[in-house]
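fyi for ur records
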Amino acid sequence: MVVLIGALLQVAIGFGLGLIAAPVLAIVEPSLVPVVNLVLAVGITSAVLVQDGAHLDLRGTGWALVGRVPGTLAGAALVVFLPAEPLAYLVVAMVVFGVVATVWGFRPRPTRKAVVVAGAMSGMMGTATSIGGPPMAMVWAQFAGPRLRSTMGAFFLVGSALSLAALTISGSVDLHNLRYALFLAPAAAVGVLLARPIGKRLDVRRTRLAAMALALAGATILLVQQLLPGS
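which gave:
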């Protein structure tokens, strides 16, 4: 259900899968983060491009990917060298950052430098925790509708593929992760199919607030789980 909702939001508002699903996956099985979300993101963002690819801001996507490459390498290093517990705390921190940034409403001008920096932050956060949406949502906040969805979709399609490649080289991708991704793929597909008819009826502002609430709930449970003795 969490993956279904995350996929629906990813298609409808441009991000949401990592923000909502990563804390829950970390609660159920920490080793699933970030690989499972990244595999699912490749399929979901491909569907977004099929639907809205004509509205893509190709130049903006290109500059964001310039930043994504070094960010991806930094994120892969965090996954390799951080034990499971600190990585769980990092997931919580990224959720809180995403929620605060979204609610605060910080909207930097989408200059070339800002887009590259956001791409780097997204690459590091997305590779380490699969939560790479908030920096791009902030810098591309002036985009709306199909343009936002297609530009975010193209960035996350290529970015998720880069992250998976880096994690595969570092030895962080295994059959256990891929089996779970395959198991959850139908839920993601249903979310994608429901996004278009349901998305037309969604109030974007309220939907984002609901997504923030769900993400915070998952992050809070994950934090409590880590703090409990013997966890």
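The chain has a mean pLDDT of 90. thats all i got for now
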